[in-house]
Amino acid sequence: MFKGDDLKELFWRAARSYSVSDYNKAIVQMRELNADAAEAFIIQNPKCFCRCFLNIETKADVIVNNMAETFNGYILHYRSKHIINMLEDIMVSVMTRLVNKQNEMACKNVFVCPRIQLKLNKDKDRAFKCSVFPSSPTLFQVKNFNDVSVDLNNRTCTCRKWELTGIPCYHVCAVAGSLKMNVEELVHSCLTKEMYLKSYQFTIPPLPSEKHWPVVELPLNPPPIKIGPGRPKKNRKKDPGSSLG
């Protein structure tokens, strides 16, 4: 209904804003560009999909369904099989993946997870553009394009990215640099190697073949299978709104 690159950019700017102030600024600009589009955006209940309204306890800023799409692609070759064979193949694949992921991480000599470290390194590079002014041993004002407040005791920053993701933002990286601190120590514990290994410590037990299944007296007949005309479709039917991503 509402098209245009400028409008699309403002849509994602509002959705990806970590702070309410940045979100409100994007909404104001959206209203100036297209008031109807801004109202349509607000009607969709932004508290359910905008970062600035997400619960900080989750330590995640994901607002798209990429994880579900990744899993759909992961099981693409299994979905066309009979339901029993499909479930067995998915089980074996996930069972193996859990072990492989644990073994891969166990071999790495790191404190935080590698992908988290990559994100942190980008913020470290941005931190050099900031100026840090202490207000107390744990409270700081950081100047860049906009001033923000960093509280090391409560692990908060005005930009809100640190609280939401658990990864220190570039404001926090600047503070850590001024204090000669190891900024990796400020990463939330759920993003460390230790916690990653704990997450993958639970395994899926192997399932014997049908030959070894217990025999039951009650006969179980499968439901009738109706095969439609044409070649079976493997690709998921996408929602019209999914093209926005």
Number of strands: 4
Strand content: 5-15%
Which class best fits the helix and strand makeup?
alpha+beta
Count of helical stretches: 9
Low-confidence stretches: none
Radius of gyration: 24 Å
* Largest pleated sheet: 4 strands, antiparallel
Main sheet: strand order: 1-2-3-4
Task: Quickly list its features.
245 residues; four-stranded antiparallel beta sheet; 9 helices; 4 strands; 6% strand; flat
Describe the protein's architecture and organization.
This protein is of the alpha+beta class. It folds into two domains: 5-53, no CATH class; 58-203, no CATH class. The protein has helices at 5-16, 20-33, 35-43, 66-74, 83-106, 114-127, 161-165, 170-178, 193-199; strands spanning 131-134, 139-143, 148-151, 156-157. A four-stranded antiparallel beta sheet has the order 1-2-3-4. The longest helix has 24 residues, at 83-106.
How are the elements arranged and paired?
Layout: H1 5-16, H2 20-33, H3 35-43, H4 66-74, H5 83-106, H6 114-127, E1 131-134, E2 139-143, E3 148-151, E4 156-157, H7 161-165, H8 170-178, H9 193-199
Antiparallel strand pairs: 1-2, 2-3, 3-4
Helix pairs in contact: 1-2, 2-3, 6-8
